[in-house]
Design a protein that fits this description.
Rossmann fold, single chain, 6-stranded mixed beta sheet, binds 1-O-pyrophosphono-5-O-phosphono-alpha-D-ribofuranose, alpha/beta
């Protein structure tokens, strides 16, 4: 199990001092991602289409890298980037900053890869958008899920961990673009975002 002390020793140049505690360790994540990989392989085993892992930048990159390493089937990868705008991140609309640019979408089973689901708006929008573009199928996998924060009715097809409404960072997740490189999911000290 990771401890904050161990992380401070191993990653002295990071801002590990800002982490209150480790919520999910690197080892726990790797084990769970392995289980997800087996579920995903099973789901697509009779499809015959290309399996496209579609990472949503930026938070998904670490989870995406671990997942693609653990999958024992051929996958292709691509990325999109979106942002929320309007009245805040939980009630705003979705704007596409980087679109999926390929002409074989109809031959792809798209698996959207996310680090976290909060309100559910990002994935609700993207699933409908990619279906409209003619994908053979569209499913979703998220490392973390905060169902208590939902403002729209949405459930992922595959989920790593369900977590309470903690302010979590690491393993791709940021606060003010920091902490993404931490190898675990940590809870940020409240004094950092309550200023
Ligand atoms: C986060 C996360 C999801 C989205 C989830 O991205 O990676 O894309 O928010 O929130 P929702 O369920 O309320 O739509 P963020 O906008 O923080 O961008 P980032 O991935 O670049 O950090």
């Amino acid at each position: 199990m990771d401890t904050v002390e161990k992380v401070q020793r191993e990653l002295p140049r990071t801002t590990a001092l800002d982490i209150e505690r480790v919520l999910i360790s690197e080892e726990q994540i790797a084990e769970r991602v392995g289980e997800l990989a087996r579920e995903i392989e099973d789901c697509y085993k009779t499809s015959g289409k290309k399996l496209l892992l579609l990472g949503i930048l930026k938070g998904s990159v670490v989870f995406m890298a671990e997942l693609m390493k653990q999958l024992r089937v051929h996958v292709e990868i691509d990325f999109m980037q979106v942002s929320s705008y309007g009245s805040g991140t939980t009630s705003g609309n979705i704007k596409i900053l980087l679109d999926l640019a390929r002409d074989d979408i109809k031959e792809c089973d798209i698996l959207i890869v996310e680090d976290i689901i909060d309100s559910g708006k990002t994935l609700s929008y993207l699933v409908e958008y990619l279906k409209l573009r003619g994908a053979a199928s569209v499913r979703t996998v998220t490392l973390l899920d905060k169902p208590s924060r939902r403002t729209v009715d949405f459930s992922p097809d595959f989920r790593g961990f369900e977590i309470p409404d903690y302010f979590v960072v690491g393993y791709g997740l940021d606060f003010d673009e920091k902490y993404r490189a931490l190898p675990f999911i940590g809870v940020l000290k409240p004094e950092l975002y309550e200023k």
